[in-house]
Design brief:
- About 35% of the residues lie in helices and about 15% in strands.
- The chain has about 230 residues and is an alpha/beta fold.
- The relative contact order is 0.21.
- The protein binds zinc ion (ZN).
- The site of zinc ion (ZN) has 5 residues, from loops.
Length: about 230
């Protein structure tokens, strides 16, 4: 009897770090708690995030999507590490979130967020480092940019969510995102939708849509790791 074949698109042996943005008790972080964010800047440890106008918070969205994506990745054989253990805690700060991916030698680290953009705008965008700046995502920026392209294309194809109408092309090149700056691994952020937009908010608050969004994130990671 032939040995069982690995399922198509197996991610066995790959290490993926999912970083669900914010945390439920981050409002308790003192506003003077500044942390070195790389590239010569310090920033507030970790912000509370945004919410829909109806009050569904970003931290709940990112946590739920991360759990769904974790399950899908594990079903394909990947080892998945989350940067926080629950949705009712504080932090950790972005420097620790980057350190988790660095210590795990993550093959990919994806920070999951939802934007608080202009209410008239909708869609998703991917945040990536510039290429080859040694102060930002040292040693991995080209890989991060490849991960950004994979996510940009595969998330769109998988979910049908359009590229952001207010971030040109659906890409934002960032030099002041602590998690990306301090990471030495392929590391991006995806702003999955705009919570301040009524249509996108309806998706954020739908469990079926969050499952679809999680599958889109996994499609992006798998496209990069292929
Ligand atoms: Zn956020």
């Amino acid at each position: 009897m032939p040995a069982a074949k690995a399922p198509t698109g197996s991610l066995a042996g790959r290490v993926v770090v999912l970083d669900p943005g914010h945390n439920g008790q981050n409002w308790k972080i003192p506003s003077d708690h500044l942390v070195y964010a790389g590239n010569g800047i310090t920033k507030l440890c970790n912000t509370t995030g945004t919410s829909t106008t109806g009050g569904y918070p970003e931290h709940a969205f990112t946590w739920d999507v991360a759990l769904r994506a974790k399950a899908l990745l594990e079903a394909r054989g990947a080892k998945v590490i989350l940067t926080r253990p629950s949705d009712d805690g504080i932090g950790p700060c972005f420097d620790k979130r980057a350190a988790i991916g660095n210590a795990a030698h993550a093959d990919a680290e994806v920070a999951i967020h939802a934007d608080g953009g202009p209410a008239s705008g909708h869609g998703f965008h991917v945040m990536r480092p510039p290429a080859g700046n040694p102060a930002i995502n040292p040693g991995a920026s080209l890989q991060s940019r490849a991960l950004a392209v994979a996510m940009h294309d595969a998330f769109h194809a998988s979910t049908g969510i359009p590229y952001s109408t207010y971030i040109k092309g659906g890409y934002l090149t960032t030099t002041n995102t602590g998690g990306i700056n301090l990471s030495t691994r392929p590391d991006i952020t995806i702003e999955c939708l705009n919570m301040r937009n009524p249509g996108d908010a309806a998706m954020a608050t739908s469990a079926a849509w969050r499952q679809r969004i999680a599958a889109g994130i996994v499609a992006g990671i798998a496209a990069f790791l292929r």
